[in-house]
Amino acid sequence: MIVSGLERGLGAIARNGRAVLALSLVVGIASPTLAGAIRPHIGPLVAILIAFAAFRIGWRAALGALDALPRTLGLVVLTQVAMPLMVWGIETASGLTGPIALALLIMTTTAPIAGTPNLTLLVGADPAPALRILVVATGLLPLTVIPVFLVSGALGDPAAVMPAALRLTGLIVAATGIGFAVRAFAAPTPSRRRVAAIDGASALVMGVLVIGLMEAVGRGLRVDPLGTGGIALAAFAANFGLQIASALACRRFGTAASAPAIGISVGNRNFILLLTALPDALTQPIMPFVGCYQIPMYLTPLLLAGFHRAVGRAPDGAERRG
Q: Which end of the chain is less congested by CB atoms within 10 angstroms, N or C?
């Protein structure tokens, strides 16, 4: 009785997952003190999210066909090597400097956030490609940063990134393995109600995580609301611009079914991975952008769900492939 009631309650939360994220953003911005109290626990919250996503997807769907790995590797090289080098070239040629220019270079250099499978679920798309991209992109980050760091000369020693990237890779692999194992032994074929309950639990955990990430935004709005608003507009343009362009490119040159996961993965990047390895003198000026960047990230299911549903719909006569 208790389990059944809990599943019904979590299922109701799952149906309103986008509203949960929006409310969490408001709470986090309105209460920097609460956000600061949650922030030290972001690591465990991320691990729980990944484990929930792995349980929901299952290892067979996550691994996909054998031919998915070369495509995933190619995408990672394109988005974590070619894209930041292109950004650096454009900024250098046009003389663009300053915190936002540096933030865009760091953003395109790093891997997707750990919550990309969960965000993909919240827009109603297949999260398996997002989980594959997350694992491969994070695992390869110590290698993909090398050409960007060396060419740009602005980010220091690429070896400094390796410990943070390896730690996150270990966390992702461990959490994914736990999720796969629990599903294999406890619920190999979970019911629709059980899946909905997992989605609701994921929405709750992500909501708490969002509150913890809003501390800098809340304090920024109190100190300099106009300046923070301008930075937020730049963050929205960068995040949503990459999401939309990448999803449309995937639909045109790849598969419609994978387009939402790829768009969300390319647009939502994990700043923390690189910020922990860079000197404070370099990172402090971009922290307002990093804080504002969380807003479009977690408003994606609310503001871009319709776009991702449309772009993920297979063209007439085409077969949907994950």
A: N
Report the distance separating Cα 243 and Cα 52, nearest Å: 24
% helix, strand, coil for the chain, step of 5: 80, 0, 20
Write out pLDDT tens, residues 203-227: 888 888 888 878 778 888 888 888 8
Tokens at 140, concatenated: 């390869």
Q: Give 186: exposed, middle or buried? Use CB within 10 Å, 0-12, 13-18, 19+.
A: exposed
- DSSP H stretches of helix in 187-312: 192-213, 215-223, 225-253, 259-267, 271-275, 280-283, 287-303, 305-311
Cα(74)–Cα(70) distance, integer angstroms: 6
Least confident window among 98-107, 146-155, 241-250: 146-155
- CA–CA gap between residue 313 and residue 255 (Å, rounded): 10
How is 14-58 classified by DSSP, letter by letter? HHTHHHHHHHHHHHHHH-HHHHHHHGGGHHHHHHHHHHHHHHHH-
Q: Measuring CA to CA, how many Å separate 303 from each of 29, 169, 300?
A: 18, 30, 5
Q: Which fold has domain 7-311?
A: Na+/H+ antiporter like fold (1.20.1530)
Alpha-carbon span 105 to 88, nearest angstrom = 6
pLDDT tens digit sequence for 24-66? 888 988 888 888 888 788 778 878 888 888 887 777 766 665 5
